[in-house]
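Limitations
The structure tokens in this dataset are predictions for the assembled complex, not deposited experimental models. Users should treat interface geometry with appropriate caution, especially where small molecules or nucleic acid strands are included. An illustrative entry is reproduced here so readers can see what is and is not provided.
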Amino acid sequence: MTNFKIVSRHPKFLELSKSFSNLRQLKYLPSFIFLFDPNISEAALFEGYVLGVPTSAIANSDCLFFESINYPVLGNTECYESMYFYMYVLRDAIKLGSIKEYVEILRIRRLKAKLKIKLRIRRKIKKYKFVC
Amino acid sequence: MQDFFKLSFKQLMLSNVFLGSRKDSFNMIMKPFILGYRGSFCILNLSYTYIQFKLLIHVLFNIIFLRKKVLIVKENDLYNFKISLEAKNLYFYNKK
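Predicted assembly:
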């Protein structure tokens, strides 16, 4: 048995893997961090502060780390209706951003297609001249 | 394209964003953002939230347009955010 197999059967490893295994897939640093409750997830906030990653969080009136947030948003963090609202706002912003990106890709493709047609016409003209 | 996104005060009011924490546990730094008190709860000033939300949307919009990654931190997936966001890669950070 390898060392990893021995360690992976340990109960403490299983406990830790539940909490941190999702973050193992992250290979690069994120360019932006969004927190729902800075009082609960303070570790992520300070990591972003140290690494220089911009952070935004929803700050309730009992927020302890208001000054260390780059883009704070005042709001309720306990009610589930408000949480859904923030989530839908995020979703719409992400979708609109991705649509703009898609439109840009289409624009570039069209430009490339136009250039290809121009090149084909030029080649044909050259061939015609050569034949003549 | 950014003008398609509409945010109104009615949405904020209906989703109970104005409700703050209890009087006993509120922070003194947050005092300028508190409008008043109702019973034992603080009430937040929504005019600040409106501006801050607009700024956040603008920042997010530009970050995703430049193909950069956003990390959303939440202690658990209580409300099935993974389904509501329709995101491919969503990571949750458990403190326990």
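Some entries come with short summary sentences. For this one: Chain A touches chain B through 60 residues (CB under 8 Å).
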